[in-house]
Design a protein that fits this description.
single chain; Spore Coat Polysaccharide Biosynthesis Protein SpsA, Chain A; four-stranded mixed beta sheet; 14% strand
Length: 145
């Protein structure tokens, strides 16, 4: 992420994914039209787990659904969606305006979202499975970490 902090990026958009995730081949076809609005700073898509092999991983999958299906949809309608740290596509110009991703806190995704919204930038949440293969926790210990 050091490139984003120093804004050594020569692109209009920047996508962030966890190492265990894979964007669907059509992700950018679905996301980029939202950037026609010059005030959209980022578009967020949900993470859906694969390899649900235990009761814990199944529980982890279901516990995130109310947040992803209800809370994030509502926040998007109110122009207050959060970046979730992965599955986020940012407008580089918006990040430049706030000095890059906020690396002063472990909750950099939410802090960056708040910084962008406070400067008048917009956010969009698309509740479609456009990123897949996130690995769920397989044990209680993994869930609590």
């Amino acid at each position: 992420m050091s490139g984003s902090k120093h804004m050594a990026i020569d692109y209009d958009l920047m996508a962030i994914f966890d190492a265990d995730q894979r964007p669907m081949p059509f992700l950018f076809n679905k996301v980029t039209p939202h950037f026609a609005d010059e005030k959209v700073a980022f578009v967020q898509v949900p993470q859906y787990y694969s390899e649900i092999t235990s009761g814990v991983s199944l529980g982890a999958f279901f516990q995130q659904l109310p947040f992803l299906r209800l809370v994030m949809r509502g926040r998007s309608k109110a122009n207050s969606a959060f970046s979730l740290g992965s599955g986020t596509i940012y407008r580089v110009r918006a990040l430049r305006e706030i000095g890059g991703l906020d690396d002063s806190t472990i909750t950099d995704d939410i802090s960056t979202s708040i910084d962008l919204h406070s400067r008048g930038w917009r956010s969009v949440y698309i509740d479609k499975p456009l990123v897949w293969y996130g690995m769920p926790p397989k044990s209680i210990a993994g869930y609590l970490v």
